[in-house]
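Hello again, I could really use a second opinion on something today. Take your time with it, there's no hurry, and the full record follows here:

___
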Amino acid sequence: MLQNSRDGHVDVRDHLKGFGGLHGGLALALVTSAMRQHAEGRELVSVTGRFGRAIDAPFRIDTALTHAGRSSSIVSGRAESERGPLLDSWAVFAAAAGDVSWPTVQQPIPEVPSPKECDVFAIPKEFVPISTSMEIRPVGSARPYAGGNRAELVAWVRLLEDDIPPDAVRFVFLMDALAPSYAAVLSTLALVPTVEITVRPGAGLAKASSPWLLLRATTQQAASSGWSSEWIDAWDPDGTHLGSAQQLRMVRGG
């Protein structure tokens, strides 16, 4: 989806933008992909990205191995343009568990209709150009900026380019596919950009069998200052929990 220019920088194409700049989940997925070269043979456990400003110009990615232990590796990454740092990231990669088998805990999938039973939600590409590469089918009546009484959005999401189940990098991207759940209680358009996001793939991701993910995003707390904390869970259509994410967001203007 992204192309490198001849000087080693990554171009930011208009059709890959969210609100104002490169889609945040896509930016973090790209940095995550670059960080994986330092942890070959190990699986992504967690990745965090902290955004300093909108990514709206060509940028380069630098990565470094900061810790390599027997059970895990920690890798840092940075997306930077001529204006300075844009995104700082840290990822934990772990070796396979081997013969160890501890009890598992996962969130059960809510009772929802299948994707084919839900209508497609068309997002105007003028607001979120990258939405044209996704198919989003909301579950229930909640919609962004509809002035609802609960800050939660639930929807089936998939990429349109193929029918491949998500791997870890694609999962990082798709965990930022929905509008901010806080927008469900807003009645006027206001930007609610991501300041920090952490994505944690679950063990079930390796067994994903469908391009569809059910995402449930819920704002756990929001202050009058505009800062909010969001939790996101993801499931495969067969009910397997695929992982979770957390986002720190900030309302910016109206």
Remarks:
- The longest strand covers residues 84-94.
